[in-house]
Structures are given as C-alpha cells and as structure tokens.
Amino acid sequence: MHASILHILNTTKTRVQALGPQISSESQKMGFEKRDFISAVAAAKADGRVPVIAEVKPASPGRTFRDISPATAAELAWEMEEAGAVAVSVLTEPGVFRGSLENLDSVRNKVCLPVLRKDFIIDRLQLEEAQSDLVLLIAGILGGQLGDFVELALKKGVEPLVEVHNRKELDLSLETDTRVIGINNRDLETLEINLGTTEELAPIIRECDLDHGTRHLIISESGMNSVQDVRRVIQAGADAVLIGSALMENASVFDKTKEFVQGAGWRQ
Ligand SMILES: O=P(O)(O)OC[C@@H](O)[C@@H](O)c1c[nH]c2ccccc12
C-alpha cells in the first residue's frame, strides 16, 4: 500500500473508534428510499448515454482540486445530473481527500441520482454512519472480510461496489454476492494509472458470467481524461466509468461531464 493510503487507514481507524457510540445511534434514521443504480445504468444505455459516475473530489494524494463545502458539493452534483451522469460519487474521507459526510448528505438531498459513498471502509460501524445508495468496498483492503461486508451492505439495502485491481482481488470479489465490480486502473501501491488493467480484468468477469449465468456490472475507475480513454475501457467490456479528476480540473463540470456522457459521437 502507498504511504498515503496507509496513513488514511490509520486515521480512519482512530476516527471510527472515537465515534463509535454516536454512529450506532445515528443509524436509526428513517424514511430513506434507496435509488437503484443497476436500473439507472440500464436506462442510460437505453437512451444512448455513456454511463458516467461523476465524482465530487476535493483532493487526492498530493493534489488539491477545489475547496468543496456541502453547498458547493450540491451545486457540482446538480451540474453532473443535468449533464446526464448516471450516478454521483462523493468522497467522504476527510484527510487526504478532504471529503466529508456533510458533502454526501448535501449531494443526496439535492439530486435524484443514486449516490456512491467513496471512502476507505474498514469497520462495519462505517456502514451505519451515513446513508448512500452505493458503498465502495476495496478488496485489497478488506481481504478475507470482503464477503461479510458485501452481505452487510446488501442486508442494509446498499449496493456494494467492490473495487479490485488485480486477478487475486478479482477472484476474491467473484466469490462474494456483489453485483457491481469496479476495476481500479490506479495501483494503490504506486498510485500509477494503467487503463490496461480494465482490458485485462473485464474479459475475465464476462467469462465468469457466461459460465455461471450471472451478470456483473463492470465499472472502470480512475485515470480517464478524454473521450478516447472512455471509449477504450467501454470497448474492453466496462458498463460504466467513474471519473473524478478530469471533471474537477475543468472550469465547467457541466460541460466536461456532458462531453463524457455524449462520447463525442463514437457512440451510435
Ligand atoms: O480522479 P480519477 O482518476 O478520475 O479517479 C476517480 C476515482 O476512481 C478515484 O477517486 C478512486 C478510485 N478508487 C478510490 C478509492 C478511494 C478513493 C478514491 C478512489
């Protein structure tokens, strides 16, 4: 693991331990209606949009994009929705990524799209502390506990998005009941990007689906800057893409999201 990721895992552990009792009482919140990500992807495909999960990302290791308050997060998410995004991802890790649970709540109250909580989940209490439609579970971090976390999320009615980066993590994820697999093109050890990761792993998922009569949704995550990049991973078998930095760097999040969603004409 890269030093910044190890640092996040340590601070997350301390934070969750300190917040323990408060989190369990918050989980009583009622009146939460889940938004279905799988049918949102199908709807996007049916009307010719490239399914883009657009990410509200204030910073990443070594880079700051924008200061994002809950009000700004809502504004950005609204631009993403208007531009045709299929879902919104919200970073909630408060240290290195400068995210917040307040940003997540604010986004979900503003838009009608499914919302993904993007964080480093290491403790089941974290599944109680926020309400989202999808939750990221990183196979490389959860290891042997992955299956339990997938079950827990499903039981809560939250769609797990299991993130993998190599064959070993993919095999682990295919043993769970997850319906959504994210292939991270970024190596969490070096933080380097290689879109070939999707080209390598997506066909393995498709083959497994054929063998078992299942149908996983494949999300290609990270490192896409152009419509050509998106085209490449969709052609490799991805159903959807997850894009953060390229949107945050652009002066107009609406314009950039729309460009990816429309695919600049390569989509018939
Ligand atoms: O900003 P990018 O390169 O478009 O990547 C977005 C997203 O995939 C990335 O933020 C991400 C993927 N997996 C994560 C796990 C934790 C934090 C962040 C991430």
From TrEMBL:
HAMAP family: IGPS_A
Pathway: Amino-acid biosynthesis; L-tryptophan biosynthesis; L-tryptophan from chorismate: step 4/5
Any one Gene Ontology molecular-function term assigned to this protein's record: indole-3-glycerol-phosphate synthase activity
Keyword Amino-acid biosynthesis applies: yes
Pfam families for this protein: IGPS
Source superkingdom: Archaea
Name of the protein in question: Indole-3-glycerol phosphate synthase
Classification of source organism: Archaea, Methanobacteriati, Methanobacteriota, Stenosarchaea group, Methanomicrobia
Catalytic reactions of this protein: 1-(2-carboxyphenylamino)-1-deoxy-D-ribulose 5-phosphate + H(+) = (1S,2R)-1-C-(indol-3-yl)glycerol 3-phosphate + CO2 + H2O
Enzyme Commission number: 4.1.1.48
Gene from which this protein is expressed: trpC
GO process annotations (BP): L-tryptophan biosynthetic process
Residue ranges of every copy of the Indole-3-glycerol phosphate synthase domain listed in the record: 10-259
Keywords: Amino-acid biosynthesis, Aromatic amino acid biosynthesis, Decarboxylase, Lyase, Tryptophan biosynthesis
Keyword check for Lipoprotein: no
CDD domains, A to Z: IGPS (cd00331)
Family label: Belongs to the TrpC family.
